[in-house]
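Consider the record:
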Amino acid sequence: MEASYVDHFQGKSIGFYFDCGNILVYGWPEQWIKILGPRIAKIPIKEFSRKIADKQGKGAGFGVKLMEDDVNWPAVMKALDDIGYNNWTTIEQPGGNTPEGLKDLCDRLIKIHVD
């Protein structure tokens, strides 16, 4: 259903802004990446914890460090490779408000893209 929505705009520059963290409320990102395929226009990188969200509310589930909870980053990156995604990603994670925090985010993002 979601993929066909974008398909209705034939020939237009329309695609999904696919959020790997947000989608964990509805399923696994690597599965959605395969479903949406080339319809994905951009990828924001964000971690999510279902366990914390269940206990403290959905918003709290986003307060975890990148690579320390439910997103299976190797599977996500493989799925992106499989669909031929070669565009840029953005990072939407807490912790980048100090030089040390920003370095930590950069290091984690590099690890996601390299591993």
Observations:
- The two ends are 32 Å apart (CA to CA).
